[in-house]
Design brief:
With 396 residues, the chain is of the alpha/beta class. It has two domains: 197 residues, 3-Layer(aba) Sandwich (Rossmann fold); 173 residues, Glycogen Phosphorylase B (Rossmann fold, 3-Layer(aba) Sandwich). The chain is built from 14 helices and 13 strands. A seven-stranded parallel β-sheet has the order 3-2-1-4-5-6-7, sandwiched between helices. It has a six-stranded parallel β-sheet with strand order 10-9-8-11-12-13, with helices on both faces. The relative contact order is 0.12. The model has no long low-confidence stretch (mean pLDDT 94). The chain binds ligand GMT. Ligand GMT binds next to helix 1 and helix 5.
């Protein structure tokens, strides 16, 4: 096994752990892994499936699909343990400096176990654990009494913890008591976007609404209840009334059937298009008049940032960290979480005032480039890895 590359500026050997999700933390982890590899680091990605954002790229990230074997005694196959084993395998063969766990459960646990085993092998060469909190790993899942004690333990036992917004860092500190000597403080590193890929020039003449009259609003999500897509359909109906306008819904998930039913009930079949999961997000976002997000809780709102980067303004609920991404009256319009009337009025305002929407879209693009460009944010992670490697490790 080789020594830890302690010299300043030396390439790092980084293991990234993530859920292979179509959106959210799976996207952030994949784009981070790809960018780290692009700037010269050795990057291994551990997940039980290849995340879609990684699959579409030829980037030099070494994928480890750790599935484990099913066994009759197991209620479900423990992927998290297979991930720990795969990490140990790579670490013993080549050495890893940093394990970057995305979404506290189960990845911070898998990383913690791998660090413990590596420390038992040789403490001086064991990797450090960085945990990035994304949202529901704190607000819904990690905070549930069935997981809360373990979530608190692994957060405190990480060598460093980051959150994707100030709002989430505050929630974490409050819910898990991270002050004083109880583990490291949560550092905020906002999410980022590839501003060259998500660009205003990405518009496609084959946009699903190109044959329809009226402006178009687009929504992208995993249709979980927290996204409140049925609420969005109602708000759209209220915003447009009898005026011609379109709503394009991208993604899939548990609330999709309820949305379809509601669209039929409200007589909106000609106005609402369900596209399912798509990779061609810039082509769908750039030509839209407005991007819509109606979550009841949202730690950041990566899809809103991707829309902004395409020059599309956002109409959203003021949930969680959304206000750190979208500036009310500047790059979009925000309303209270339960204010359906206010949301509908904001949506109508941008849908039927194309000049205002365009002006806000231009500012949105500028802010995405200036504040959330991928290269700059990824540098902050590299800086964190080096700071953590320069100090004494936490012992598992
Ligand atoms: O936490 C989740 O709901 C899942 C997560 C994901 O993996 O899809 O989404 C969260 O992480 C994203 C990436 O950091 C954030 O942009 C989303 O705001 C956040 N979702 C919620 O907080 C509901």
């Amino acid at each position: 096994m080789s020594e830890l590359p302690r010299s300043p500026g030396a390439p790092l050997r980084i293991g990234v752990l993530c859920h292979p999700t179509y959106g959210g933390s799976g996207v952030v982890a994949s784009e981070l892994a790809l960018t780290l590899a692009e700037i010269g680091h050795e990057v291994h990605l551990f997940s039980h499936e290849v995340p879609p954002r990684l699959a579409r790229s030829p980037g030099r990230v070494l994928m480890h699909r750790a599935q484990g074997v099913p066994y009759p005694l197991f209620h479900s196959t423990p992927h998290d343990l297979a991930i720990t084993s795969a990490i140990l395998d790579v670490h013993r063969a080549q050495g890893l400096d940093v394990l970057h766990a995305h979404y506290a459960l189960p990845h911070a646990v898998s990383a913690y176990l791998a660090r413990a085993a590596a420390q038992a092998d040789d403490a001086a060469r064991a990797p450090r654990v960085i945990t990035t909190l994304h949202g529901t790993d704190i607000t819904l899942v990690g905070n549930d009494p069935s997981y809360a004690p373990l979530t608190q333990f692994v957060i405190r036992a990480s060598d460093a913890v980051t959150a994707v917004s100030h709002w989430l860092a505050k929630e974490t500190a409050e819910k898990f008591g991270l002050s004083g000597d109880k583990g490291c403080a949560v550092e905020v590193i906002h999410n980022f976007v590839d501003t060259k890929w998500f660009s205003p020039e990405a518009g496609s003449p084959r946009h699903p609404c190109s044959l329809r009259t009226g402006p178009t609003a687009v929504h992208v999500s995993n249709f979980r209840p927290v996204k409140r897509t049925p609420w969005l359909v109602r708000a759209f109906a209220k915003a447009v009334g009898a005026r011609p306008a379109n709503l394009v819904l991208v993604g899939d998930g548990p609330d999709l059937p309820a949305c379809r039913e509601l669209v039929r009930e409200l007589g909106l079949n000609e106005r609402v298009t369900f596209l399912g999961e798509r990779d061609a997000l810039p082509e769908l976002l750039a030509p839209a008049c407005v991007f819509v997000l109606t979550s009841s809780s949202e730690s950041f709102g990566l899809s809103a940032l991707e829309a902004m980067s395409c020059g599309t303004p956002v109409v959203a609920t003021r949930a969680g960290g959304v206000g750190e991404v979208v500036e009310h009256g500047v790059s979009g319009l925000l309303s209270g979480i339960d204010d359906l009337e206010g949301f509908a009025a904001n949506l109508a305002e941008l849908l039927f005032d194309p000049a205002r929407a365009r002006a806000m879209g231009e500012v949105a693009r500028r802010q995405a480039v200036e504040r959330f460009a991928r290269e700059r944010v990824v540098e902050r992670y590299v800086d964190l890895y080096r700071r953590v490697l320069a100090r004494a490790p936490r012992l598992s």
